[in-house]
Design a protein that fits this description.
Elements (H helix, E strand, L loop, with lengths): L8 H19 L43 H19 L6 H10 L9 H7 L1
Amino acid sequence: MYRGSFYCPDCARDIKREVRAEWKEKHGTPFEDNGDSEGYPQGPLEEGGGESDSPNHCDGCGVFLENPLTRHGVEWMKEQARGATEDLKEGNWPSPAFLEWKRFYDDVIDFDEDEDEDEDER
């Protein structure tokens, strides 16, 4: 986490290196992390930044961070899957990002579950 964004370990390492170098050049002393994500990347955070309403991606390189989803995130992913199914029926391929998300979440989301069953569980 850095300035409100999530980063993969590689991008975070690059940012840390840049921040330390800029600090040393400006102040002539080694940088000391005060634990504030506004001034220095914190983490890596567990589970790709934690539970979210949508898949998290690195704000540097775009890699999928494989985070868990909230209940709303699960419903959102099911909506995306229904849209991808419709796209396929029309001859359009789903986005590579969706396919990556679906592969990751396939073990925890029943994409074939009937929508009426979801309503009954609430």
